[in-house]
Amino acid sequence: MIRRPPRSTQGVSSAASDVYKRQMKDKRYSNIWIINYNGSDNRPLTSGQNGNSQPRWSPNGKQIIYVSSSSGSSQIHKRWMDTGETTILTNVQTGPHGVSWSPDGNHIAFFGTVTRGADFKVDLPTPPKGAEWATPAKVIDRLVYRFDGVGYLKGYKHLFIVPSEGGTARQLTSGRFNFASYRGGQTVWSSDSKHIYVSTNLNDEWEAQGYRQSDIFQISIKDGSMDKLTNRDGPDGNPRPSPNGKYLAYTGYDNKMMATQISHIYIMNLKTKKIQEIKTKLDRGVSNLSWSGDNKNIIFTYATEGNTKLAKTTLNGKTDIMASNLGRGYSIASNGKFVMLTTRPDIPSDLAVGNIKGGQPKVITTVNADLFANKELGKVEEIWYKSSHDGLDIQGWIMKPPGFDPSKKYPLIIKIHGGPFANIAHGCNSIIATKTALKLSDYVVTEAGFGADLGAEKFLDIKCRKAGIQPNCVVIVATVRALKMHGGIEKEDLKKENLDALKKGLPNLERHINNVKKFGLELVVAINHFITDSEKEVKLIQEYCLKLGVKVSLCTHWSEGGKGTEDLAKNVVGICKKNNKENFKYLYTEETSILKKIETIAKEMYGANGVELDDKVKEQINIIEKSGFDKFPVC
To answer: What local confidence, expressed as pLDDT, does residue 387 receive?
Structure first.
């Protein structure tokens, strides 16, 4: 798989990183390749089982920088393209990301995590010699303390620069704020190399405001001073200066507290600070801005009807599509040549090139040709049909199995997205989506949110109550990794066998099992198997579940496909056929008082001893009760 292709300054060649996975080690590696614009001379620049990524050409096209773990930790490396010599530019404690050259070639900017624990300290007693005490408590004093794909957050994302010839990295930002997203971000230089633009939220309530609020700041590389360029209620981001340094393009919208809002393109005159919206007439959100080399067009991406487009607009809003089937990124040179990742259902990822002046992009790689030489993919067809409710056109897709024979019958799996309002409600899909699925299939599998405390309780006490539906069976998904983390070990040690940590984490699974049983429901524990799970660890979970009187299925679908979940399917179907819906019950009745509902959830789901309310909360509950809303479920 190819990702994020940066182009040389004149569009002569591209350097991109390819990603591959070693199954036996369950680990991803990546290397950097270079290819000419016409598709010739495709060759690797790095090799080995390391992480080599984020290649960036120097402004003069003579060197590239990239991030590599070949030295034992992720550091910024520089390679001279004429000799192939490399050097390490940094010696930082956390992996740099969002690397970029300053336009004058003198500095490299990057984001890095500055570790910082909770502002809470207490002197704990020293354990006696030979004592085996429990793992110390993890103290958390931030609202967002872990993130999907990242794990527990160990600090804050800050901005750094380092001389392009190497030296000591200098931190430009500080504080309990993030100057990049939890997963990363891209550093953006001003055209004169004196400043770096970032999008962040420096308000006291930044964690609670989330993605709905951010402003654009201009940070001086001389002393780290910051100028706030935008200031409105809403998220402004994706800053990109024009090549001539006169304008700053960015995306954003006025926050109207709606579930979905569309991002628009704006440009700011950096001298007068006057802001102008670019009227593209698109009813789609836009992102990933760039400028053409002549300062006349802004390049951007947007998604429509299941396809991501690469488009350009003049400053007057005249918009043209440059390419379809855009993958994870693109890059454009000053002469208008661009390279992009292209993807279709039959092409996971390849490089394509084109020109802003027009013409169809040309695919120049076939990185998965060897895989598809002896593999047949299921054919994907786009379909359109009319809504029976209001006659609107609805888009869908049908995927036929490999070797499809129209004379045969096949089981049909229907996945209903339903849009942002029909797709997700209280951590689960909506009543509309579930009832639609119930009319179309024999068995409906629906996610009930996050865990058997937060997600399942809302699903059962709120959604099922209001929809008048009752589930036949519950599947609790568990992993060896998660249970070992609950047992107190760090993320980097999860791949090692650790039966003691697993034993300490199993009570967490038991709590979720007991939570489900309180609703009178029968369940199956599905062990989502990872290749690093040992047989002893899997057996320990299986035996634990059986002692609790719970069915358990080992799921190996990651390596065996559908065959790996046959046992789970049989267990689920067996429970559903019992049809023991009369055993289902809610945690509380609608007539229960608000305080009692809160206490019931806290005690039954979370194991609390009780609930203490401050005067402000009591006042709010009193208002709700006087308004006649006390008969609703609580969330």
So the answer is: 87
Residue 378 gets which letter from DSSP? P
- Written in H, E and C, the secondary structure of 230-245 is CCCCCEEEEEEECCCC
pLDDT tens-digit series, residues 453-480: 778 898 899 989 999 999 999 999 999 9
- 125, HSE (Cβ side, Cα atoms, 13 Å): 6
CA distances from 517 to 509, 523, 544, 581, 635 (A): 13, 8, 16, 13, 20
Mode of pairing for the β-strands spanning 347-355 and 337-344: antiparallel
In a 13 Å sphere around the CA of 293, the CA atoms on its Cβ side amount to: 14
HEC string of 492-561? HHCCCCCHHHHHHHHHHHHHHHHHHHCCCCCEEEEEECCCCCCHHHHHHHHHHHHHCCCEEEEECHHHHH
213-256 residue pLDDT tens: 999 999 999 999 999 999 999 999 999 999 999 999 999 999 99
Phi and psi at residue 326, to the nearest 5°: -70, 135
- Residue count (the chain): 635
Residue 445's contacts (CB-CB under 8 Å, 6 or more residues apart) are: none
Mean pLDDT of 76-99: 93
Which among 53, 60, 54 is positioned nearest to 103, based on CA atoms?
A: 60
Tokens coding 611: 């609930």
Confidence class of residue 265 from pLDDT cuts 50, 70 and 90?
very high
pTM of the model: 0.78
User: Is 190 in contact with 245 (CB distance < 8 Å)?
Assistant: yes
Estimate to the nearest angstrom the gap between the alpha carbon of 604 and the chain centroid.
32
pLDDT (mean) for 585-597: 94
The identity of residue 559, as a single letter, is S
Closest CA to 565 of 552, 551, 553, 550: 553
Q: Say how many Å lie between the first and final Cα of the chain, rounded.
A: 42
Please determine, for residue 24, whether its predicted confidence score (pLDDT) is greater than 50: no
Q: Quickly list DSSP for 96-153.
A: -EEEEE-TTSSEEEEEEEEE---S----PPPPPTT--PPPPP----SS--EETTTEE-
Q: Which residue spans within 337-417 are E strands per DSSP? A: 337-344, 347-355, 362-363, 380-386, 393-399
- Among candidate residues 86, 5, 76, the one with its CA nearest the CA of residue 39: 5
Find all residues with CB under 8 Å of 120, minimum gap 6, and list them: 139, 141
Beta bridge partners of 171: 160
Q: How many CB atoms lie within 10 A of CB 590?
A: 11
Q: What is the pLDDT of residue 23?
A: 47
- 3-state secondary structure (DSSP) of residue 558: helix
- What DSSP string runs through 149-171? TTEE--EEEEEEEEETT----EE
Whole-Å CA distances, 547 to 131, 442, 482, 502, 551? 30, 32, 20, 16, 10
Half-sphere exposure of 1 (CA within 13 A, CB side): 13
**Neighbour tally for 477: CB within 10 Å:** 15
Q: Give the whole-angstrom CA distance, residue 278 versus residue 514.
A: 56
Instruction: At 435, list the tokens.
Output: 């009832």
CA 569 to chain centre: 29
Task: Give ∠ CA 214-218-220 in degrees, rounded to 5.
Answer: 140
Q: Which residue has the tokens 């806290």?
A: 602
pLDDT tens for residues 173-183? 999 999 998 87
Phi/psi at 372 (5° precision): -80, -5
Q: What is the pLDDT of residues 108-133, one digit of tens each?
A: 999 999 988 766 666 767 888 888 77
> Which of 147, 173, 157, 171 lies closest to 115, judged by CA?
157
Q: Position of tokens 């991803």?
A: 28
Q: In angstroms, what is the C-alpha Rg of the chain?
A: 28
